[in-house]
């Protein structure tokens, strides 16, 4: 274990949890309920949930022309999941991650994170590190469900929706005057997840407060590392395989629905929210007796706020307006004295700020159709000291989608979006989706386009730095073109009250992929580079062999098959199985290679048992993820495949008047799978677990 030191945030988190819990307990004692129900111990399985991401309006999963996968909060809790990244990789086989201090390296169906659009309640999440979103900004304790849409979806969502869309839907309950929940989970290697929710709803006004603290220690599974250039000689290192962290999330949301009786009830709703986030890595400090330590931690801060409203003219006609402002920055926070910095110094690397406003109407123009029309404005600003950038760009967009049922068993969706980007001008992305539904079957066909406007860093980067004595130069490119994709999918689904089976085949072609191309430095180029960066010394110039330039050079080709099954044979038992086959390639200079970090075969499986005896309920969940090797290019080795199995049990006691107690106990990585290979500069990993770990938790739900 590569533990370092306790932090002041631990004390802060305990104080916050104690304050919110005590406040909620006081409310609960004031507003006692005489009636006692059994809803706390009852479990209902929903195999045809309501979804919104595929069509832009709410409908049952089995009725949407575009398949969407839904992960409910209950399913995540039953598996003992308390972070967003764990939910995605445990439950969706087409998603994978490689956690590091520079982000999660999320991938979907072989494509990297810059092609994945992440939304919170339909609004884009900002804040990436090297094109990797900081997913720990999302507080899972407030999440109602996560919807995953595969394939190009730019006709509704605009730029970046090439690999797919992840939409995180939060929960704002209105059934109780006061609801307080405290949830704590502990595991090995310093893993601690704490969350407290305080919800108040009265007279149409709702207040939803959440605080969470997550932490984990750094570790590595093998203390040895090969000497550079050798495959026999080794030395010890403390460089972590998994980078420890400390995160804090504090969020507040208000909703208001005027209390009106009769036909005008619940027509108008307003909402406002603010979310604060901070994260600091926790890595071993630099030492003179061993390699692998660092002089600084990576520190991240985020502030997101927004406001909006919806007016329902009728049950099928509504107008919605939203505004979101999202601020994110990260940099180095020194904890070891260096020649230029003292402990506590913060050196900012990057700051991002986005403002977005959207107006959307959902219209039931005929009894057999739903039309979605809207407009979107967005401005992104990037300030990066390391890349000498202080630039911004705006995007204006208009979109329309019409879903109709011309025949009783036939549904068609036609849509298109026009985006005008300040730098890349106008782009149109269409979509056509068809569904034929004979009996218990749904047969679907989809064609859609995606596009991605190059990031401000890829356009304007002007970067020079020296890392460990080696100079590095990166240039942006103002002549870049947007990346485009063509996505085709065929899907067959069989659905009953107890069984849902879906088989999907797809092809995703991506053109004009933006990559960093290395260019060899000759005498002529060296002269130009020294004019561009006069701070280059003669010694640094002697070590400079190449520089990098962003270019449109590659094209990608992703083909795959996905199979999902949900079966509920009895009211107490549920099985889910998901499989993904992904064949992902990229072409550079006429040569095809396997797409970096892609996985050919992956599967997730879960079996859940839940039964109630009076006011006690037992839940047992067995889940696993299996995947084949992860592909790497160049001089890197492929990372071996693995199979991980976990078991979690929950015990719900609803015997007390004041609160419901739900302890849990489980084992992560039952069979103790670990990657114990000796580290080297050519070695890559896919399995980051430290081995078998006991996981215990306690959830308290205070009653009114």
Descriptive key words:
single chain, 704 residues, mainly beta, Maltoporin, Chain A, five-stranded mixed sheet, 38 strands, globular
The largest sheet is:
22 strands, antiparallel, barrel
Query: What's the gyration radius in Å?
Result: 26 Å
Number of helices: 7
How much helicity do the residues have? under 10%
Strand content: over 45%
- Tally of domains: 1
Question: What do we call the CATH topology?
Answer: Maltoporin, Chain A
Beginning-to-end CA distance, first to last residue: 43 Å
Structure description:
- The protein has a single domain (8-350, 479-514, 554-702), classed as Beta Barrel (Maltoporin, Chain A), CATH 2.40.170.
- Helix content is 9%, strand content 54%.
- The protein is built from 7 helices and 38 strands.
- The longest helix is centred in the first third of the chain and has 23 residues, at 8-30.
- The radius of gyration is 26 Å and the shape is globular.
Describe the structure concisely.
With 704 residues, this protein is mainly β. The protein is built from 7 helices and 38 strands. A hairpin with a 2-residue loop joins strand 6 and strand 7 (123-124).
What is the topology?
Layout lengths: L7 H23 L19 E2 L7 E2 L8 E4 H6 L5 H8 L3 E2 L10 E2 L7 E5 L2 E2 L3 E2 L2 E2 L9 E8 L3 H4 L6 E7 L7 E9 L5 E11 L2 E12 L7 E3 L7 E3 L7 E13 L11 E15 L13 E19 L2 E18 L11 E18 L5 E16 L4 E19 L2 E12 L3 E12 L4 E12 L3 H5 L1 E6 L2 E6 L7 E13 L3 E22 L2 H10 L5 H6 L2 E25 L2 E16 L2 E4 L6 E13 L2 E12 L14 E12 L5 E10 L24 E10 L2
Parallel strand pairs: 6-11, 28-31
Antiparallel strand pairs: 1-2, 3-10, 4-5, 6-7, 8-9, 10-11, 12-13, 12-38, 13-14, 14-17, 15-16, 17-18, 18-19, 19-20, 20-21, 21-22, 22-23, 23-24, 24-25, 25-26, 26-29, 27-28, 29-30, 30-31, 31-32, 32-33, 32-34, 34-35, 35-36, 36-37, 37-38
């Amino acid at each position: 274990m590569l533990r370092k030191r306790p932090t002041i945030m631990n004390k802060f988190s305990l104080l916050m949890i104690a304050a919110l819990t005590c406040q909620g307990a006081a409310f609960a004692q004031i507003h006692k309920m005489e009636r006692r129900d059994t809803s706390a111990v009852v479990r209902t399985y929903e195999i045809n949930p309501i979804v919104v991401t595929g069509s832009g309006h709410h409908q049952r999963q089995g009725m949407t022309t575009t398949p969407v996968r839904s992960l409910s909060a209950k399913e995540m809790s039953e598996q003992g999941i308390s972070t967003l990244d764990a939910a995605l990789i445990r439950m969706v086989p087409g998603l994978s991650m490689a956690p590091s201090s520079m982000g999660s390296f999320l991938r979907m169906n072989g494509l990297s994170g810059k092609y994945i659009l992440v939304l919170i309640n339909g609004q884009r999440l900002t804040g990436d590190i090297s094109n990797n979103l900081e997913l720990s900004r999302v507080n899972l304790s407030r999440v109602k469900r996560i919807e995953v849409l595969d394939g190009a979806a730019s006709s509704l969502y605009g730029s970046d929706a090439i690999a797919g869309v992840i939409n995180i839907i939060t929960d704002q309950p209105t059934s109780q005057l006061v609801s307080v929940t405290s949830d704590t989970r502990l595991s090995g290697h310093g893993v601690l997840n704490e969350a407290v929710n305080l919800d108040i709803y009265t007279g149409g006004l709702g207040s939803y407060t959440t605080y969470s603290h997550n932490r984990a220690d750094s570790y590595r599974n093998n203390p040895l590392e090969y000497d550079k250039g050798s495959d026999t000689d080794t030395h010890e290192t403390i460089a972590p395989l998994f980078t420890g962290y400390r995160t804090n999330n504090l969020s507040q949301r208000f909703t208001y629905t005027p209390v009106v009786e009769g036909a005008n009830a619940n027509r108008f709703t307003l909402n406002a929210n603010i979310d604060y986030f901070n994260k600091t890595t926790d890595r071993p400090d630099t030492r003179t007796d061993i390699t692998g330590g660092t002089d600084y931690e990576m520190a991240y801060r985020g502030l997101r706020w927004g406001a909006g409203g919806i007016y329902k003219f009728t049950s099928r006609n509504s107008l919605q307006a939203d505004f979101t402002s999202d601020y994110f920055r990260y940099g180095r926070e020194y904890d070891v004295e260096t020649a230029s910095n003292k402990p506590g110094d913060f050196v900012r690397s990057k700051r991002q700020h986005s403002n977005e406003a959207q107006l959307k109407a959902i219209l039931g123009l005929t009894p057999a159709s739903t039309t979605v029309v809207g407009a979107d404005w967005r401005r992104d600003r990037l300030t990066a000291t390391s890349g000498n950038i202080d630039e911004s760009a705006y995007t204006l967009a208009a979109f329309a989608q019409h879903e109709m049922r011309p025949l009783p068993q036939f549904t068609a969706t036609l849509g298109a979006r026009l985006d005008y980007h300040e730098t890349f001008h106008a782009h149109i992305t269409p979509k056509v989706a068809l569904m034929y539904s004979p009996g218990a079957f749904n047969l679907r066909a989809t064609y859609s386009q995606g596009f991605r406007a190059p990031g401000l860093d890829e356009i304007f980067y002007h970067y020079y730095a020296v890392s460990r004595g080696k100079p590095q130069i990166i240039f942006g490119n103002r002549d870049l073109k947007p990346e485009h994709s063509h996505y085709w999918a065929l899907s067959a689904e069989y659905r009953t009250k107890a069984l849902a089976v879906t088989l999907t085949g797809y092809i995703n072609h991506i053109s004009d992929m933006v990559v960093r191309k290395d260019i060899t430095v000759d005498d002529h180029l060296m002269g130009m580079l020294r004019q561009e960066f006069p701070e280059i010394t003669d010694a640094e110039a002697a070590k400079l062999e190449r520089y990098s330039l962003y270019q449109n050079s590659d094209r990608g080709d992703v083909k795959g098959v996905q199979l999902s099954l949900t079966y509920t044979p009895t009211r107490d038992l549920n099985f889910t199985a998901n499989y993904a086959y992904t064949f992902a390639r990229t072409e550079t200079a006429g040569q095809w290679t396997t797409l970096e970090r892609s996985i050919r075969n992956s599967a997730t499986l879960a079996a859940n048992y839940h039964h109630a005896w009076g006011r006690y309920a037992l839940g047992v969940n067995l889940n696993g993820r299996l995947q084949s090797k992860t592909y790497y290019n160049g001089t890197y080795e492929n990372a071996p495949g693995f199979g991980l199995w976990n078991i979690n049990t929950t015990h719900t006691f609803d015997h007390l008047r004041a609160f419901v107690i739900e302890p849990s106990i489980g084992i992560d990585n039952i069979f103790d799978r670990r990657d114990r290979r000796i580290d080297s500069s050519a070695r890559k990993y896919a399995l980051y677990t430290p081995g078998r770990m006991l996981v215990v938790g306690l959830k308290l739900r205070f009653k009114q």
